[in-house]
Write a structure and sequence with these properties.
With 152 residues, this protein is α+β, with helices and mostly antiparallel strands. Helices cover 36% and strands 12% of the residues. Strand 1 and strand 2 (8-11) form a beta hairpin.
Length: 152
């Protein structure tokens, strides 16, 4: 089966019901998406499929027909994505385990909502869990990224 991940085509020999997360990690060596809950609830495994945030731990690879982007493919070799840069600027990460999923969720959200309110940010980001409780910094980073993306 062919899969495009981070703008690179891959041929993988896996069962179609294998979760995308395991294809990414075990078959392709892409370790940014993390296993958290395994049921698509916590968001640590979030990737983009054609720009839409999806939970890769519960997404069978056989139903993936679009391009997959992981945290490793979000920015470019010369610059971080605005969300990644805002995460660094506001020192969002503590343990860091959920951060790739948080960033991927925020990037997809901001692609659809360029001028979000605090309430919209809170609602969008509440789909991802952070055990360290950095939610105020997450909101601030999303607001900063939105401003940078509008100005770009």
């Amino acid at each position: 089966m062919q899969l495009t991940v981070n703008k690179k085509r891959h041929e993988v020999d896996v069962e179609p019901e294998m979760p995308l997360l395991w294809v990414l990690r075990d078959e392709l060596g892409i370790t940014g998406p993390k296993l958290g809950c395994g049921i698509g609830f916590c968001g640590a495994c979030t990737v983009h499929v054609d720009g839409v945030a999806m939970r890769s731990c519960s997404l069978p690879v056989g139903v993936v027909s679009g391009a997959v982007t992981t945290i490793e493919g979000l920015g470019n070799p010369k610059a971080l994505h605005a969300v990644q840069a805002a995460w660094v600027e506001h020192q969002v990460a503590q343990c860091g385990y959920c951060q790739s999923g948080q960033i991927m969720t925020a990037a997809a959200f901001l692609a659809a909502q360029s001028d979000p309110t605090d309430q919209q940010i809170d609602e969008a980001m509440s789909a991802n869990l952070c055990r360290c409780g950095t939610y105020p910094r997450i909101r601030l980073a999303v607001k900063t990224a939105a401003q940078k993306m509008k100005g770009a």
